[in-house]
Amino acid sequence: MGCTCDDQQNLAQSLQNDTNTWTKLQDLLERFRGQRGSLVTVLQQVQDIYGYLPRPVMQHVAEVLRIKPAKVYGVATFYKQFRLTPMGKYVILLCQGTACHVNGSERLAEALCEELQISEGETTTDGLFTLSSAACLGCCSLAPVMMINGLAYGQLTPQKARQIVKELAEQEKGSLQEGGLQ
Amino acid sequence: MRIRIGLGSCGIAAGGMKVWEAVKDEVEKRALKIDVQQTGCIGMCYQEPLLDVIEDGGEVYTYGHVTPERVMRIFDDHISKGQPVTEYLVGTSSRPNDFLSGQVRVALRNCGVIDPENIRDYRAGGGYSALRKAVTSMSPEQVIAEVKASGLRGRGGAGFPTWFKWQATRQAGGDTRYIICNADEGDPGAFMDRSVLEGDPHSVLEGMAIAGYAIGAEEGVIYVRAEYPLAIRRLEIAIGQAREEGMLGSNIFGSGFSFDIRIKQGAGAFVCGEETALIASLEGERGMPRLKPPYPAESGYWGKPTNINNVETYANIPWIISHGGKTFAAMGTEKSKGTKVFALAGKVKRGGLVEVPMGIPLRKVIFEMGGGIKNDRKFKAVQLGGPSGGCIPEHLLDTPVDYESIMATGAIMGSGGMVVMDDTTCMVDIARFFLDFTQKESCGKCVQCRIGTKRMLEILERIVNGKGREGDIELLEEIANLVKEGSLCGLGQSAPNPVLTTIRYFREEYEAHIRDHRCPAQQCRALITYRIDPERCRGCGSCARKCPVRCISGKKKEPHVINQSQCIKCGTCLETCPSRYKAVIVE
Ligand SMILES: Cc1cc2nc3c(=O)[nH]c(=O)nc-3n(C[C@H](O)[C@H](O)[C@H](O)COP(=O)(O)O)c2cc1C
Ligand code: FES
């Protein structure tokens, strides 16, 4: 971290200029300052604010909490929940658990990758969808399962999964056009 | 009359909220004086969404696959005229169905019965009376003795005697001690702990408080995985209510004993289910296991004596204190006492949660409660213990479920995940699946685990891709033993189990892949081809229309052909070909 290339500095500047999120971040750090063992929780809440962990923010967290930046980065990269790049508006969590696997989750993954033209872990260029995976969503008896922004969809087929994503994309297009007319 | 709707994660995913709203609407429209209540998961996940009508006499009628339309029928016939709608009925309390009738519910005693967001419901059924009994009329030593008499062993995997850990933590020096509840539930394919947390969070809080009293701790932490948002919400509500009613906080039941609980969310790492890694994660570090001893009972959270138990272990405690350890020990086998919850999933007809006395045969769980195999296919294996466990074949189906008997098969009891597989499941692919999981989840500390699992995965990948070599099976076994011996924590020590058990029981399947380049289950894509039988094809064109890569061609009413160089072997043509033609052949 501590990279000083122009991109990061520009990003750092624009993050500070967004006063809404920046004050939230300061409040958060104020609450946890001096509380030992809180790094994982702090990063979880930072991710709630930004949707991911921007590098300049991790640097800032390290400075305020007086933790080595390398440690912050080490924790951020250890856990699957933390993301270092921005997320799409819809985050698709495809279950890769055992029950879903024996009920054909691999074919869902293929169908979705094809539909969205991305691989697992990536975000579509329009910033709408991120395709991610989870070890088990705990709805194994409805396998195969995926979750989009906290809502679970069960007993899927590749066709059904494509359909759900298509409908969401259509909805977004629709609301964009409406917005344009106003 | 009362109505109860199952709103656990599975109920909601199946459309439970729509049912909830439809019921609320009907009650209002018809101006009825009926209590409508939410509840957790009763375990019949295959029938979700579920709705119970509870008549004034206490008889419970359970309806399955409920939709807003069915709600209307239930109101028209049952609620208004008192005539149960038999077509949708899945059981009643006096005549339970096969799924429920063989069960004995201790840990799940309240799941699907009470409203998990209402502490009064829990207390009305005797909740928190065990805590009262413990702190007001028993000494900590007596509590530990009662748990010892119950024979309870940890439900998180290893089956360590619970009383022993409690005693060790109590006897460790210092004056600060901690209680931790392991709700990380990392086994992919298991959901027992989720159901208990969503359906009966107070039982876990009460169990932890009793443990706190026995050990001499004033602080408890629940480490719960972030993928369970509903469980977290219900726990937060439950903790709030317990504090308000004085079940948590200072001077509980005027006994002078103080105890409080907080929640910490995991961040998605399987290895954090291991107790020393979990503690590292709680302290805000990377969740890497460390060498034991010292055990957490001597030096755990912040270096203090710490007792860690699983969700289900704690949920059993209040029952044991209320009913006595002996009553619990009367169930089960000589070495495995009480009951165990299993999450039944995979290729089984009735998937869900079952709680059975220890010692009943696997066959009974899968075929009587689970109803056998989906689509009446042939049973092949059942996977127990997740990534640390193994696959048990048909000839061992009469193995009783207890720690020692399961261990003897090469699998482990684990936390209770039970994934059923049929003849369309390729066992080499399953071994590859689990190795892929453990290899990704290895924290990287031990060389054998980090690199060994990677090498094993590579070998398994080449076998399923039809590039297996003579000697690969022996090589797998050799590396497996190195990984077992050279790893510090349970993750690496048990990671080879899925590979070793599939080699042990399904060696011929490995050999078919390696020697004949054939996948007997017809799952490994590199080893199968799809072909259209020109004799049977009627040229209806449905496969060509559905083919995602458009590699099927042919004139209408004439046999179609698959272009093999473009085929991605997705199997869509096989599924879409009308069953009266059955023209698609897999080879
Ligand atoms: C890799 C690994 C993952 C584990 N995951 C879990 C888990 O998800 N839940 C759990 O309760 N125990 C898990 N355990 C077992 C714990 O280390 C520990 O034994 C258990 O929480 C003790 O509770 P018990 O005695 O009540 O079973 C895991 C162990 C290992 C080695
Ligand atoms: S295996 Fe997919 S929800 Fe559990």
Descriptive overview:
The complex is a heterodimer of chains A (182) and B (587). Chain A has 182 residues and is of the alpha+beta class. Chain A has two domains: 6-78; 90-178, Glutaredoxin (3-Layer(aba) Sandwich). Chain A has helices at 6-17, 19-32, 39-50, 55-65, 69-78, 98-102, 105-116, 158-181, and strands at residues 90-95, 129-134, 146-148, 151-153. Chain A has a four-stranded mixed β-sheet, with helices on one face. Chain B has 587 residues and is of the alpha/beta class. Chain B has five domains: 2-96, Glutaredoxin; 119-329, NADH-ubiquinone oxidoreductase 51kDa subunit (Rossmann fold, 3-Layer(aba) Sandwich), CATH 3.40.50.11540; 339-422, Ubiquitin-like (UB roll) (Roll); 427-515, NADH-ubiquinone oxidoreductase 51kDa subunit, iron-sulphur binding domain (de novo design (two linked rop proteins), Up-down Bundle), CATH 1.20.1440; 529-586, 2-Layer Sandwich (Alpha-Beta Plaits), CATH 3.30.70. Chain B has a five-stranded mixed β-sheet with strand order 2-1-3-4-5, covered by helices on one side. In chain B, strands 11-10-14-12-13 form a five-stranded mixed β-sheet. A four-stranded parallel β-sheet of chain B has the order 8-7-6-9, with helices on both faces. Chain B is globular. In chain B, 54% of the residues are buried. The mean pLDDT of chain B is 95. Flavin mononucleotide is lined by residues 154-158, 160, 182, 184-186, 271, 273-275, 308-310, 313, 415, 489-491 of chain B.
